[in-house]
């Protein structure tokens, strides 16, 4: 598969116009049109609707693959250049994961990267609820699966999943019987949510407390284990995403859907314009996989 044709295809999709894509690529419109026609012959199906210019179902499927292939090709060029320039052996790619990360997307992305780059060591770093950006800014990780979505200068965020919210209460709680039908925010306003350290970023405190401010539990939680241990003991309540229940079944706890709470994102965070080719490959693979697997987290 010719990478130049894929580059032309992506440019047309992103610009929504053959002429603008040609200008961006410093090619003639005829050359870009020829690349698209050659790709369509290669795949045996139309990839773009012409008026207006939008990808067909087959074209939409190709977009994520094209981005991954181009990112991998660019990274390969950088990797070979490092060798020819006598670069020192690189350190492992450090993947930060808060809790269970982005549900099924996280293990799939790690596995895909290991298959694509078996010669690159990869290490997993468990992040606490306070480490949305700090692990990246302090160069302790290279990429981070965190929640909820946020904006921060110098950090690039890719949304991977969007999920329903749940609360986690003790099995002895008066709300435990609502596990099947769910509750509304008015029902959970007065729950004694577990405390977070004072340096926890505001996006996470707003997420945990449903934007309702401080809570009364004497216990502090930094990890899912902390949270579930306290909840099972009847010392507080927690909140999470729906997929949390699949990854952390815990005796003495009950997970209850919150029917009217806004759904929340999990994201992959990276340093803006990170030059590391392995980061670019991991990011491209993860975003492509999220398009395929992300909806599974909403089940």
UniProtKB/TrEMBL annotation:
Keyword line: DNA-binding, Transcription, Transcription regulation
Residue ranges of domain HTH lysR-type in the record: 1-56
Organism: Streptomyces lydicus
Designated name of the protein: LysR family transcriptional regulator
InterPro entries: LysR_HTH_N, LysR_subst-bd, WH-like_DNA-bd_sf, WH_DNA-bd_sf
Alphabetical list of PANTHER family matching this protein: HCA OPERON TRANSCRIPTIONAL ACTIVATOR HCAR, TRANSCRIPTIONAL DUAL REGULATOR HCAR-RELATED
SUPFAM superfamilies registered for this protein in UniProt: Periplasmic binding protein-like II (SSF53850), Winged helix' DNA-binding domain (SSF46785)
Pfam families (alphabetical): HTH_1, LysR_substrate
Stated family: Belongs to the LysR transcriptional regulatory family.
A GO term from the CC aspect: protein-DNA complex
Recorded GO MF terms: DNA binding; DNA-binding transcription factor activity
């Amino acid at each position: 598969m010719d990478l130049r044709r894929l580059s032309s295809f992506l440019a047309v999709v992103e610009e929504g116009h053959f002429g603008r894509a040609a200008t961006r690529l410093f090619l003639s419109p005829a050359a870009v049109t020829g690349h698209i026609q050659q790709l369509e012959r290669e795949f045996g199906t139309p990839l773009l609707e012409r008026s207006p210019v939008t990808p067909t179902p087959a074209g939409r499927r190709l977009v994520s693959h094209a981005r991954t292939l181009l990112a991998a090709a660019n990274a390969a060029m950088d990797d070979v250049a490092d060798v020819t320039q006598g670069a020192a052996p690189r350190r492992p790619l450090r993947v930060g994961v808060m809790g269970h990360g982005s549900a099924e997307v996280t293990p799939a992305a790690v596995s895909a990267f290991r298959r694509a780059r078996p010669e690159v060591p990869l290490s997993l770093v468990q992040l606490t609820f306070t480490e949305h950006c700090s692990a990246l800014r302090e160069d302790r990780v290279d990429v981070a699966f965190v929640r909820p979505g946020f904006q921060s200068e110098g950090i690039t965020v890719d949304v991977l999943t969007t999920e329903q919210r749940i609360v986690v209460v003790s099995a002895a709680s008066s709300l435990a019987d609502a596990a099947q039908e769910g509750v509304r925010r008015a029902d959970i306003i007065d729950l004694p949510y577990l405390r977070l350290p004072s340096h926890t970023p505001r996006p996470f405190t707003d997420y945990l407390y449903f934007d309702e401010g401080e809570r009364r539990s004497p216990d502090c939680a930094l990890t899912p284990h902390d949270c579930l241990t306290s909840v099972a003991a009847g010392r507080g309540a927690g909140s999470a995403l729906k997929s949390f229940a699949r990854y952390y079944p815990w005796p003495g706890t009950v997970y209850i859907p919150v029917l009217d709470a806004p759904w929340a994102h999990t994201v992959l965070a990276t340093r803006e314009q990170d030059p590391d080719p392995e980061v670019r490959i991991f990011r491209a693979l993860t975003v492509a996989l999220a398009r395929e697997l992300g909806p599974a987290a909403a089940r």
